[in-house]
Amino acid sequence: MAEKRWVLRPLDPVRSHSLARELGVSPVLGQILVNRGITDSLQAERFLNPTLSDLHSPFSFPSMEKAAERLKRAITKRERIFVHGDYDVDGITATAIVSSFIRENGGDATPYLPDRFGDGYGFGRSGLSAAVALRTGLLITVDCGIGSRSEVEEAGRHGMDVIILDHHEVPEQIPDAYAILNPKMDGAYPFAGLCGAGLALKLVQAATVLMGLSEEHWQSFLDLAALGTVADVMPLLEDNRIFVIEGLKRLNRAPRTGIRAILETAGRKDSLGVREISFTIAPRLNAAGRLQHPSPALEILMTDDEGTAQVLASQLDQVNRRRQEIEASILEEAETLISGFDELPSVLALACADWHVGVIGIVASRLVERYNRAAFLACIQGEELKGSARGISAFSVVDALRACAPHLSRFGGHREAGGFSLSSDRWLLFQEALVAYGTSSVDREAFVPIERIDALLPSLSQVSSLTDEVERLSPFGPGNARPVFLVAGARLESVLPFGKDGRHLRLRVSRDSAGCCVIGFGQGRRAAEISGNDLCDLVGTLDRNVFQDHVENRLLLRDWATIEAERNDGMEHLRKLFRTLLSRGTPVSEGDSSWVLLKRETLEALSDSRLQGSSSLSEALRIFQEMGLLSDHPDGILLRKRGVKSSPQLSETLRRTRMTRRDATKRVPAGKDERRDLRAGGPR
């Protein structure tokens, strides 16, 4: 059995084939583009080959000209400019962008990052006091500030103009700032997905224009904008996609001194992509703010001195190793607590006195990945419990916190994540309320993770060419996930566990005289489910691994299901019906020749047909559609006639039908012969 529910994304053969023909790509890539809302060649060209000229104008922000003019004046007049950031990678890179731009153009910039443990998140009293002490003229908050209404007002009373660059949710009452740049404000900007670093880049881009500087004065910070965008898990679309593409070019061509030192310390020599930012650079920059003050992370991004960079890189590497050890320890303890539940609850709410407040958020994310439950973790800090939460698609963290607000002293966040504080004597009541909220608001079906499949892989012989095409969609991330493929009916030739304790799997599969390597990272625990010569359906992403000049095209496994005999229950009836429908179809006049058109009048003539061992024709058509064998057409329906194998595992209708039959078999007291008839689909 698969661990997840498989859902094939809707098909549009006519449109995808037309787009593929215009672009000179395969119908598979055409379908993937159509499913991502890209339906014409102009859209496709801008997506596949974006340039800096495709960026939205920074002056699309209503307050941008005012903000950039104020920054220009402060630089020109050598006013004290206080740049207040945040302790995560987005806040750190945003601070580095604005501060470096000011200094490089002769201005007086003081960067400031809060301490997670002493100051807490955002622009607060400590940052305000520091700005006042410096007799600041212009205060710029990056990646924070939109919720700091009282602090902004007090800064104004001390003679400061405040410019807020923040991408977080906009409260009902916003601060009375000199200018606010927030893409989530109504009518603020054509793209709401910018992070703090993206906003910082937009501000210096606008200032570059107003100051009459060359474009390199803002484009030199594209690498930092890419780091912040990827680390903050922002949608890799529109401006963000361009930031990351152009930023990666700069990181690979000539990385800044500090980034080069981080990579050397980590032993990375390969070309950089999103994966390297996510798993090598960002964790080291984040580790500083998680366990101590984040200043080394900011300093390494702003230094040009190689010796200083090497020392800082070594420090960050050591802190990150300690973070990994703490994370592993907390995760193990959390798993032990979970194993004590008689039944997995609707929400995971766990607390331990000595867990580290800077690391529990990462562990919460790990638990969400493992159990597909929202996770709320808390530990003691000072005189109260402080917690971090991560959600799932069907569960809003901030809505849950609002529902449990009577038990909390403070909370905040959004749908996917949040933070909260409460008195330790309220924990059990909070835990109870949280689980009750989860039970009442989330259907248990939502706890079964869904694997959304982009396309059926036509042939294993096409893995190499499709990998080339898929890479044109990169960089991958939120909003532009790596395409997921189904390989149906593959023969398993070998199974080889590898890695520590056999935690990973290396498989060799074949189908139709072609073979492919399959890597299952973290799938070792399921090794006993399969053996050589099994037939199975595989779900995964295409990947190209290069090691010592050896290139291997492979499938990275996300899930699989062995093809068991019982799975064919009722399938022969469906196969016969499908062949009958195909025989009544006509060639498609436009689009992919692997489809035939079954006209509406023919369907209406068949509307009273029944399937032996199944249900109505409409139910069968729904099954075919879920399996990727049928698609809607203005004149009727399209049926796939050749070239691609599918899997019954894709059909939720078929799964529910079989469950209903099994339940009926268990409920109805029947004799031996009647039970046999029920399993076959009902008495005849």
Structural class call reads alpha/beta
Largest sheet: 5 strands, parallel
- Report the radius of gyration as a whole number of Å: 28 Å
Sheet with most strands: strand arrangement: 3-2-4-5-6
Q: Classify the beta-strand content into a percent band.
A: 15-25%
CATH C-level label of the largest domain: Alpha Beta
Total DSSP helices: 24
Number of strands: 22
Looking at CATH, which topology of the largest domain would you report? inorganic pyrophosphatase (n-terminal core)
Number of domains: 4
Q: Please bin the fraction of helical residues.
A: 40-55%
Q: From the 3D coordinates, which CATH architecture of the largest domain would you assign?
A: Alpha-Beta Complex
Please, what is the average pLDDT?
89
Q: What gross morphology would you assign? A: globular
Q: Low-confidence spans: pLDDT under 50, at least 5 residues? A: 610-614, 670-684
